[in-house]
Amino acid sequence: MKLNLVYFAWVRERIGLDGETRELPGTATVTDALEALKAIGPGYQAALAEPQRLRFALDQDFVGKDAALKDGAELAIFPPVTGG
Q1: Which of 12, 71, 74, 82 qualifies as a FRET site for 21, CA 20 to 30 Å off?
Q2: What band does 80 get if pLDDT is binned at 50, 70 and 90?
Q3: Contact call for residues 39 and 33 (beta carbons, < 8 A)
Q4: What integer pLDDT is reported at residue 1 of this predicted model?
Q5: pLDDT in tens, 52-73
Q6: Is 59 left (phi over 0), alpha (psi -120 to 50) or beta?
Q7: Could you say which DSSP state residue 2 is in?
Q8: pLDDT surpasses 80 at 81
Q9: pTM, whole model, 2 decimals?
C-alpha cells in the first residue's frame, strides 16, 4: 500500500524528513503502518517508539491507531499540541 506520510515537530526531527511517500507492505491500519515504519531504521524507531504519545490524521481528519488505511492516503504523524 502506498502512503503519503507527513511528519511534524520532534517526529520530523528524529526521522529527518518533513514527509515522504512509501510503499508499506501489509499495511491495513495506522498501527500496522507504524510497525512497518519502525523497521526502516533507528530514526523511525526513535520517533515511533511510544505511539501512545502520538496523534494521527488521515486525509486531514484526526483518527486513532486502529483507523483503516487506503492506498494513496495521507497519514500525518505528530505529537500532541499544547498552547497557552
Answers
A1: 82
A2: confident
A3: no
A4: 93
A5: 999 999 999 999 999 999 999 9
A6: left
A7: E
A8: no
A9: 0.93
pLDDT of residue 84: 54
Q: How far apart are CA 62 and CA 22, in angstroms?
A: 21
| Residue 15 amino acid letter | I
Query: What's the rounded Cα separation, in Å, for the pair 33 and 29?
Result: 6
Place of cell 483503516: 68
Q: Which domains does the chain have, with CATH numbers?
A: 2-78 (3.10.20.30)
H/E run at residue 7 = strand 2-7
How far apart (Å, rounded) are the C-alpha atoms in residues 83 and 43?
A: 27
- Whether the CB-CB separation of 46 and 66 falls below 8 Å is answered with no
Of 45, 59, 43, which Cα lies nearest the Cα of 76? 59
Written as one string, the DSSP assignment of 22-81 is: EE-TT--BHHHHHHHHHTT-HHHHHHHS-GGG-EEEETTEEE-TTPBP-TT-EEEEEPPP
